[in-house]
Write a structure and sequence with these properties.
The protein is mainly alpha-helical. The protein has one domain: Jann2411-like fold, CATH 1.10.3300. Helix content is 49%, strand content 12%. The strands form three sheets. Strands 1-2 form a two-stranded antiparallel sheet. The chain has a two-stranded antiparallel ribbon with strand order 3-4. β5 and β6 form a beta hairpin. α3 packs parallel to α5. 36% of the residues are buried. The model has no long low-confidence stretch (mean pLDDT 93). The structure holds zinc ion. Zinc ion (ZN) binds next to loops. This is Putative RNA-binding Zn ribbon-like protein. InterPro entries: ABATE, ABATE_dom_sf, Znf_CGNR. It comes from Allobranchiibius huperziae.
Length: 190
C-alpha cells in the first residue's frame, strides 16, 4: 500500500531521521547518535529518501535535525502502544511548531502535488513541516496504525509498514531473522 509517492517520501525521511538521530538500541546493540561526520552522512541518506533533489544537510542544521528526530520518535511509540490520542496530540504539536504551509507545486514534469514548506528561519533542517504533514496524513488515514517500533529484543528502531497485510513487526530483515533464530533455538532446547 502507499500514501501517495510524495507522502511516502516525507514519511520515509522522518522514519530515517528517528533511526539515525535518536539514541537507544539497534538490532541487538545499544545505539548512540554517531559523531558529526557520520551523522551528516546519515542525515543526507535520510533526506534522499524523499525522492526529491534535496539539499544536503550542512553542519549548521544538525541541531535542528536532532531536535526534529527527538520530537518525531514519540509519534511512533504512541502508535506502537495504540495510544492514538497521544500520537495525534504530538503530531498536532509538530504541525504547530513547524507551521506547515501547503502549496501545490508542479516540477520535473510531475503532476501538481502538495508540498509543505515551513519557515526556514524557524527550522534550519527545512524538513519539520514536510515530516509533520507526512505524519498527519498517515494518522488521519485508515492506515494510522502502520507506524511501529521494532518488536525484537534490544532494538527500538522505527518503521513504516507498507505491506499489504499490515503485520510487520520488525525494523529490518536483520531483526526478523534474529528473532526467528532465537525462537528456533528455544524450540530445540524444549
Ligand atoms: Zn529492529
Amino acid at each position: 500500500m502507499t500514501f501517495g509517492s510524495h507522502v511516502d517520501g516525507v514519511v520515509a525521511v522522518g522514519r530515517e531521521l528517528v533511526n539515525v538521530a535518536t539514541p537507544g538500541e539497534r538490532q541487538g546493540r545499544s545505539y548512540d547518535v554517531p559523531g558529526p561526520a557520520q551523522l551528516l552522512s546519515g542525515l543526507a541518506d535520510a533526506v534522499r529518501l524523499s525522492g526529491r533533489d534535496a539539499r544536503v544537510p550542512d553542519a549548521g542544521a544538525v541541531e535542528a535535525f536532532l531536535d526534529l528526530a527527538r520530537r518525531v520518535r514519540p509519534v511512533y511509540e504512541f502508535v506502537e502502544a495504540r495510544e492514538m490520542d497521544q500520537a495525534a496530540e504530538v503530531t498536532n504539536a509538530l504541525l504547530d511548531r513547524y507551521a506547515a504551509r501547503p502549496r501545490l507545486e508542479s516540477h520535473g514534469g510531475q503532476p501538481w502535488h502538495l508540498h509543505f514548506h515551513g519557515d526556514r528561519r524557524a527550522d534550519a533542517s527545512g524538513w519539520g513541516a514536510a515530516v509533520a504533514m507526512g505524519l498527519a496524513t498517515v494518522l488521519g488515514s485508515e492506515y494510522a496504525d502502520r507506524l511501529g517500533v521494532c518488536a525484537a529484543p534490544a532494538c527500538d528502531r522505527v518503521f513504516v509498514d507498507v505491506s499489504r497485510n499490515g503485520l510487520r513487526r520488525f525494523c529490518s530483515e536483520a531483526c526478523q531473522s534474529r528473532v526467528k533464530a532465537a525462537a528456533h533455538r528455544a524450540r530445540q532446547r524444549a
